[in-house]
Amino acid sequence: MPSSSLLDKAAKSKYMDLKTFGITQAMYIWVDGSGQSLRCKTRSLDKEIKEISDLPMWNFDGSSTGQAEGSNSDCFLKPVSMFNDPFRGAPNKLILCEVLSYKMEPVATNKRQTCQEVMARVKDDHPWFGIEQEYTLLDVDGHPFGWPKQGFPGPQGPYYCAVGTGNVYGREVVEAHYRACIYAGITISGTNAEVMPAQWEYQVGPCEGIKMGDHLWMSRFLLHRVCEDFGVVASFDPKPMNGDWNGAGCHCNYSTEKMRLPGGFDEINNAVEKLSKRHNYHIQAYDPQGGKDNMRRLTGLHETSSIFDFSSGIANRQASIRIPRHVGEDKCGYLEDRRPSSNCDPYTVTEAIARTTILNEEGDIALELNY
After folding, report:
1. Tens-binned pLDDT, residue by residue, of the chain (371 aa)
2. Of 98, 117, 140, 294, which has the highest C-beta tally within 10 A?
3. Collapsed DSSP state (helix, strand, coil) of residue 316
C-alpha cells in the first residue's frame, strides 16, 4: 500500500500559499453506507461563508458509497454543521452533511435526523454529553504503529498516560489532531495515551444535544485527515488486537440539568435504573453491527463489563455504568455509560440515552448475537 507520507509535503506547501482571489473552498463531508466511514469532496464558492444557510445542497454518486443503486444513484448532501478548515486555512470551511435519497428522505445510515428530533423534544432538560473516543494507530500494513513487525511489545502497564520513547507510540499525530480540532472549532477537551501501546483517547464535550454527534463525527474526520499527512492509519475497531490487550470504546458521559444541580444524585440513580431495564436495546444501539462488534470487546475483562449483563457502581470501570467517585461525594454531576464501542454512531448513542432517561421510553429487545 502506498504511503502518503512518502509524498513531498514541502512541494505541496508552496501551492497552498497561492492566492485564491475570493474563492472559498468548502469540503462537504458525510457518513457513507457503512455507517462508519466518512467521505468528502470539495466545491468552490465565490463568497466567504458566514452561516450554514449560505451553503447550497449538493449531490454525489450514492452507488459508489453503498447508499443507492446504480440505476438511480444520485444522493443529496444537506449541510448541517460548519467548521473551520485547519488544512486549507481561512476562509475555507469543512461542512458536515446529512445524506438524503432521491426522495429527499434520510438514507439508512443518516442517523442524525431522528437524533435531532429527539433532542428537540428534550431541549428543556439541557442534556450534556461528553464522549471519550478511543482509537488505535496502525501502520499501512495494518499492524499497530510502533509494534515489532514479527512480535509484540511488552505487556500492558507502562503505556497508559505514558511519556518517553518506548512507552509512547505516535504522539506527533495526537498533537497535530488536537490543534486541528481546536482550530476547527470542535469542543475537544483533552487527550491521553491509553492502556494498549499505540492506542489513544481524546475527549469531546461537553456538548448539548445534537452538537455531540456533529462534533464527534468531525473530530473523526480530522483524525483520518491528519493521519494521511503522517502516513499512518487510525482504526476505530473495538478490539483491534486479540489476546491480553485492551479494546477501544467510546464512553459516553451524560447529564441533564437536574443531575448537575445540588441534590441531583437521585436523578442520576433514576437514570441508571431506567438504563438497567433496557440493556439489550442500548447494546444494539451502541455499535453499528447491532452489538456484534462490541461482543469482541465487552467480555468482562480489560476494564469492561459483560455484554450480557447490566451493572453499575461508583468508580467501577468494569461496570456498564460508572458513577465517578467525586459525583458520589458531591451528590450531583453525571454518569458514564461505558458500553458504546469505539466505532459507534454518536447520534444513535445519544438518541438512545435521551429516549430512555428523559422520554421514559420502555421495553427491551432480544439480542441476536452469534458467539
Report:
1. 555 567 777 788 889 999 999 999 999 999 999 999 999 999 999 999 999 999 999 999 999 999 999 889 999 999 999 999 999 999 999 999 999 999 999 999 999 999 999 999 999 999 999 999 999 999 999 999 999 998 899 999 999 999 999 999 999 999 999 999 999 999 999 999 999 999 999 999 999 999 999 999 999 999 999 999 999 999 999 999 999 999 999 999 999 999 999 999 999 999 999 999 999 999 999 999 999 999 999 999 988 999 999 999 999 999 999 999 999 999 999 999 999 999 999 999 999 999 999 999 999 999 887 65
2. 294
3. coil
Spell out the long-range contacts of 227-230 with Cβ–Cβ below 8 A and sequence spacing 24 or more: 227/137, 227/173, 228/4, 229/4, 229/5, 229/9, 229/176, 230/5, 230/170, 230/172, 230/173, 230/176
Instruction: Name the grid cell of 260.
Output: 448537575
- What is the distance between the alpha carbons of residues 152 and 150, in angstroms, rounded to a whole number? 7
pTM metric for this prediction: 0.96
Alpha helices, H only, 145-201: 171-184
β-bridge partners, 169: none
Count Cβ atoms within 10 A of the Cβ of residue 273 and give its class: 0-12 exposed, 13-18 middle, 19 or more buried: exposed
159: amino acid identity, one letter? Y
User: Cα separation of 66 and 250, whole Å?
Assistant: 25
